[in-house]
Amino acid sequence: MKKPLLSIIVLSIVLLVTFFGQFIYTVSPYQLNPGAILLPPSLEHPLGTDRLGRDLLARIIEGGKNSIIIGVGSAVIASLIGLIAGVSAGFFRGVVDKFFVIVVDLFLTFPTFFLLLALVSYIPASSLVLIIVISITGWMGNARMIRSESFAIAKKPFIKILQIAHTPSYKIILKYFTPLIAPIFFIGFTFGVGGAILAESGLSFLGLGVLPPQMSWGSILSEGKEVIDIAWWVSFFPGLMIFLVTFSLINISDYLQKITNKKEKMV
Predict the structure, then answer these.
(1) d(Cα 220, Cα 50) in Å, to the nearest integer?
(2) What is the pLDDT of residue 126?
(3) Which CATH number fits domain 5-266: 3.40.50.300, 3.90.226.10, 1.20.210.10, 1.10.3720.10?
(4) φ, ψ at 49 (rounded to 5°)
(5) Mind listing the pLDDT tens digit for each residue in 72-109?
(6) Cα(132)–Cα(138) distance, integer angstroms
(7) Can you tell me where the transmembrane regions are (predicted)?
């Protein structure tokens, strides 16, 4: 099985540049320069400048923080909601499972991105608001996978013996369910980070993401759409960063899924 070493290396480099690049490349991402409007990549401006003369590399470093924080924060909350909901439905079944199915079906009735648009349209956008909104609309897929696995675990003989012995439910869930569900949880989490970054980028591209002077890769990409014919670099580089992060996360998630499937076949 081929390990996603390249994806891990690429993701590590992007994270290092995003969170520590400002200490090496000290140019301000907010500084306007009327004499350097839409300059192409050069030694002075490695990724060029935007239509207000701001250095694009500095803005991508700064904007990457928001994009990654929103992506990871949303994925953490969505994964935890999915974990709690999925395990509860699979373990307790009955009324709890029926309620779970109703809620999930209700959320899935609306396309996720349009639900995001509807929520953000009525709430002033900020990093915290985007994290909450994206997590609220992104927990269903992970929850359904965990619910399915929880059903299978709940049917195992040792779980039934523990229930007959009146072992508290929380002990069974924490001690036996959690380790078995952990691989699926991390698969869902890695997918969730990539999906949240794409969702934030899409909202920012439509002008519904983080508000100036804050920035993200999506908002920088949006700023370049009006000058893409004469300044390709303004949209290309933030789009490249989004692609590198999401593609690397998908590869890592796919590898984790293959490992999990291989272990299940061995069992």
Answers:
(1) 9
(2) 75
(3) 1.10.3720.10
(4) -130, 165
(5) 999 999 999 998 998 888 888 889 889 998 888 887 77
(6) 10
(7) 5-25, 68-92, 99-122, 128-146, 180-210, 230-256
CB 168: neighbour CB atoms within 10 A? 9
Alpha carbon distance 193, 189 (integer Å): 6
Residue in the block written with tokens 């991390």? 186
pLDDT tens figures, 110-161:
766 676 777 777 776 677 888 888 888 888 888 888 888 888 888 888 888 8
What pTM did the predictor assign?
0.84
Judge contact between 218 and 202, C-beta under 8 A.
yes
Domain boundaries, the chain: 5-266
Of 65, 204, 222, nearest to 125 (Cα)?
A: 204
Pair of tokens at residue 133: 């909104």
Length of the chain: 267
